[in-house]
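Changelog note: in this version the structure field was regenerated for every chain. One regenerated record is shown below for reference.
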Amino acid sequence: MKRCRFAALAAVTMAAVISKPATGQSTGEPSQPKFTVLHSFTGPPDGGFPFANLILDQASNVYGTTLEGGSNSGVCVDSGGCGTIFEIDTSGEESILYSFKGPERDGQFPYGGLLRDSAGNLYGTTWGGGTSGLSACENTGCGTVFALNAAGEERVLYNFTGGADGANPHAALTLGADGRFYSTTYMGGAYDAGTVFAVTRQGVESVIHSFDFDGTVKDGDDVWGGLIRDPSGHLYGMTFGGYNLSCEPGFQIGCGIIYEMTEAGTETILYPFTGEADGNWPGGALVRDSEGNLYGTSQGGTSQWGTVFKLDPAGNFTVLHSFTGGAEGGDPWAGVVRDAAGNLYGTTLGGGGTACAPNGCGTVFALEPSGKFSILHSFTGGADGFAPNSALVLDQSGNLYGIATNGGIGDGVVFKIVR
């Protein structure tokens, strides 16, 4: 049942992966943007279909993952490859750092982004594959946590079993105050509603919290997003579903929550979505400012095209912007990034250019502290790609980097916006 719910919901966000169109630091207001495609993926042996957030090193080299592609094209997804880890240097040259080998080996389908340490090692998760076997977790495998060193040598830190330890991680890792890696799994745990887990660098996994949507205590469910950490070591995240069933009754998954978690596993529900003007089904990760305010995106809202929201430390929830669809964009699945001036930047899966049926090709937007909203780029479904599924990342000059999961000259693009 849980897997079927995911398939139904994922059809909204992931249809772009298989469909084709009909044809840092910053200050001040956003300026007139310049959009550039840094790389257009072509499929095996290159990557295909980037989905996760990008990261940057100190020199502004770009790192990310693709769901498909790579050199092992005969193994996963009808020979489409098992996914890659890639780098794009400042000259625009792309390198495949690693090609996943697939089921029963090192994993497949890295939906989550990467975490990079000071030595240049990369860490992440794969949704499927691993030693659980391809028949486990609805025939995808239960997923892995992996490390890739600067020499390109990959090591699986942990193989999920699909039981109490969790299954199918969808998000990036976050480094905890105790030195462990923290993230979430969509399924598994004590109640098969997902988990918050921690993994040591030696591969010892601990479940910090098992979500229990069907229990006597209201909790979250359908855990897609990752975690952020505050200076005290507390973790913050969102669940796509859970808490109450008033949202989209046909799905019966609830509206979602914003939660706080200690490294010892004490959960506090900071805000339960109602499915009204505040929206429902929050996606992606949160962003936190120095005053403890949290920012993110949800679906629904007054026009049913999604919202950008703020939650202050006292629990006061504010809708900063409600999307209206069309040229303004809609369906902001991935969250936002915030610059030093308080401007928020994000992507919408829909709206924008009309060449991509049925809801548009997507947008990149800016939202200033004054409430002024602007579109930085409207995807056309051509060389610029379409369906930007991930959040953006800022470099030290205030330039924005992101991905479009489809389009370009092949299977998605990495782009840069200079403001």
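Spot check on this record: The longest strand covers residues 280-288. Residues 1-28 have pLDDT under 50 and may be disordered.
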